[in-house]
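README, section 4: Worked example with a bound small molecule

Sections 1 through 3 covered apo chains. Here we extend the same pipeline to holo records, where the ligand is supplied as SMILES alongside the sequence. The molecule in this example is copper (II) ion. Nothing else about the input changes; the structure line simply encodes the ligand pose together with the chain.
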Amino acid sequence: MRKINIILTASVLAFALTACGGQKEEQKEKAQVQETATAQQENKQAQMEEMVFEKNGITVKNPYTVASKAGQMSVVYLVIMNSNDQPDTLLSALADTSIVGETQLHIYVQKDGKTGMKRVENIPIPAGETVELKPGGYHIMLMGLKKDINVGDTVNVVLHFKNAGDLEIQAVAREKK
Ligand SMILES: [Cu+2]
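The generated complex, written as structure tokens:
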């Protein structure tokens, strides 16, 4: 019994080796193509995570918005770096008016133990410093959405700086948490 088994295995193996000579090359190529595709996808993801916009010494990094429904609100968070030796000011923001009814600058505030928010005139960006618009702090409020914002959508927002001028950025929509 054992002997037959061994012979069988050996002949199957020999057959497999001859038959697979060409296929192996093909599989190798397929694997390489797949690897390239995966690398490109990862690259794209990394780029989306590392979105950088620059103008006149002002750098805006990783802007993102949050998926939301038409008629509701959403928000844009981002990081602003001022590499100039002069302070700058974010005077206003204007999101794509085909998607957003009104764009306002806001800050979250604590009132009677509750988190609320209020509109601010502007957001100061001190010389050589980084200001983060983030949950719990400053943010760009997108009010009266005219359309749904779905995960992966981008919303164009023009940031109007006192010194650096207008900087257009793209905020990618993340899932609402
Ligand atoms: Cu707000």
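What to look for in the output: The chain is about 25% helix and 45% strand. The domain at 52-174 is CATH 2.60.40.1890 (Immunoglobulin-like).

Section 5 describes how to batch many such records.
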